[in-house]
Design goal:
The chain has about 475 residues and is α+β, with helices and mostly antiparallel strands. The protein contains 15 helices and 19 strands. The structure holds flavin-adenine dinucleotide.
């Protein structure tokens, strides 16, 4: 099969303006967000409708051409870029981006899968409705990518991950069949729940083309506060108290170590520390309010004696602007941390009651590997989902860095398993965690996943080399 022949056939399907074949143009789509993977694709296609996607897949099925589905390419596991060199085409969803229908009776929104998450949120905001999934990458990631990774983010504490916030899907499977399951009924127990299988399938079972989202009335207001703590145990105790007190209101609780301020200041994402006196741990809390904010402020102050015992310092933003600055600091953290160069990123979850012990044991062992490692754990403490990250010294060779990184990954994953947690809480498996999946999932679980893969994608053309080798 000649590449020029394939290009001509694909141009006939998508049109000349919707294909890139030049190496230089392809770089942006070939490389992952962290710069870990750099395999070349054959071309990138930008289809404008589900019907065109169906035609592309039917063609690839016939010719045995492998496909990488790609949204905003913000994956942190290498799932949105080629696994092999010059063997795959990328289907990028950015031109499938229409918001189709809001239904205020049934509280649903129908969108095309290439809609950028922040565009969906802004559209709803203007109409006084709310879609709760919120990530630091919201301005680039697309709803299809969010579903394919079952993205969690800062509001999963109250609303759950993406899976809990979708009602229906339309997909194209690996032989080019379209499956449309877009009933607006939330109660719909009619056979297997296909959307749950597609959630978190990382583009290996089907290409998502349309999505029916669950939407919510917009909270009247939000209330943010930033609390500082002497130690992690007290911090977790305080989180539990605050959750008990404000359970149905509590939308986010983000753990921040003091090192985060240093990293953001050093990399010019923040001018100065938010607190006068530095403490080892902080949590940024956000409550959704359905009542007047001033009224709630009084309630909060009256209730404060119930929670103040464990809190060492508290910042109540004095303006919307300061509130935005606090959340921008949280959003910038991933980007600022990436600028530190030699980094190790673990996306884990640990039962809250064992988190303090996990942190102590892990730190002790990691410092034995190299005393220069700075541990930088942050994230969604309410779900027990911590980005247990590290900054290594920059003056080590690339080989030493990779060796140390792999040693840390193995150690952390083993320990997480021992503590009854998950070695991939919200970012998925992609290319980077395939070995861990084989190690920690049972043979029966892997076998049934492989059988499912065959049913949805009989020729293994959809995102090969991701999750496991089929
Ligand atoms: C700064 C930053 C912060 C982040 N914060 C979070 C966070 O808090 N929580 C979290 O869960 N993740 C987070 N992520 C990871 C990432 O943003 C999410 O996983 C996001 O959901 C990926 O969306 P995307 O459109 O960029 O998908 P991509 O990265 O393009 O693709 C991700 C996966 O989805 C597949 N895919 C994409 N579109 C489709 C489609 N239409 N049909 C089928 N498969 C498809 C791809 O093949 C790939 O397997 C963050 C990433 C960055 C860079």
């Amino acid at each position: 099969m000649k590449t020029s022949e394939v290009f001509n056939d694909l141009i006939n399907i998508v049109g000349k303006k919707n294909i890139l074949t030049n190496d230089e143009d392809l770089t942006k789509y070939n490389n992952d967000w962290r710069g870990f993977y750099k395999n070349k694709s054959l071309c990138v296609l930008f289809p404008e409708s589900a019907n065109i996607i169906k035609k592309i897949v039917k063609y690839c099925y016939k010719k045995n051409i492998k496909i990488v589905p790609q949204g905003g390419n913000t994956s942190l596991t290498g799932s949105s870029v080629p696994s092999y060199n010059n063997k795959e085409i990328i289907i990028n969803f950015s031109k499938l981006n229409k918001i189709l229908e809001i239904d205020k009776n049934n509280l649903t929104l129908l969108v095309e899968s290439g809609s950028v998450l922040s565009n969906i949120k802004e559209y709803l905001d203007k109409q006084n409705y709310y879609f709760p999934i919120d990530l630091s990458s919201s301005g680039s990631c697309m709803i299809g990518g969010n579903i394919a990774t079952n993205a969690g983010g800062i509001n999963a504490l109250k609303y759950g991950s993406t899976k809990e916030n979708i009602i229906g899907l339309e997909i194209v499977t690996g032989d080019g069949s379209i499956i449309t399951s877009l009933s607006k009924m939330k109660k719909n127990n009619t056979g297997y729940d296909l959307k749950s299988i597609i959630c978190n399938s990382e583009g290996t079972l089907g290409l998502i083309t349309k999505v029916l989202l669950k939407i919510f009335p917009k909270p009247q207001n939000n209330f943010t506060f930033f609390a500082a703590y002497d130690d992690l145990q007290t911090c977790i105790k305080s989180f539990n108290q605050i959750r008990e007190l404000y359970y149905d209101k509590l939308e986010s609780a983000e753990l921040i170590p003091n090192l985060s301020f240093e990293v953001c200041i050093k990399n010019n994402f923040l001018k100065k520390h938010f607190f006068e006196k530095k403490m080892p741990w902080y949590i940024i809390f956000r409550l959704n309010l359905y009542e007047d904010k001033n009224l709630f402020q009084d309630i909060f102050e009256k209730n404060f004696n119930k929670i103040n015992k464990n809190i060492s310092d508290i910042l109540l933003p004095h303006s919307i602007d300061q509130e935005k600055k606090i959340w921008k600091f949280r959003d910038d953290l991933v980007e600022a941390y990436k600028m530190e160069g030699r980094i190790v990123t673990n996306d884990i979850s640990i039962p809250l009651n064992r988190m303090d012990s996990f942190f102590k044991t892990a730190e002790k062992e990691i410092k034995k590997m190299s005393s220069k490692i700075k541990i930088h754990p942050f994230g969604h403490i309410g779900d027990g989902n911590i980005h247990y990250n590290m900054i290594l010294q920059n003056n080590i060779s690339h080989e030493s860095y990779l060796k140390l990184r792999n040693k840390i990954y193995s150690f952390v994953n083993e320990l997480v398993e021992e503590y009854g947690g998950s070695f991939s809480a919200e970012h998925g498996i992609g290319q980077i965690k395939k070995n861990s999946l084989l190690k920690f999932k049972s043979k029966n679980e892997i076998d049934i996943m492989k059988k499912l893969k065959k049913v949805f994608d009989p020729k293994n053309i959809l995102n090969p080399g991701k999750i496991f080798d089929a």
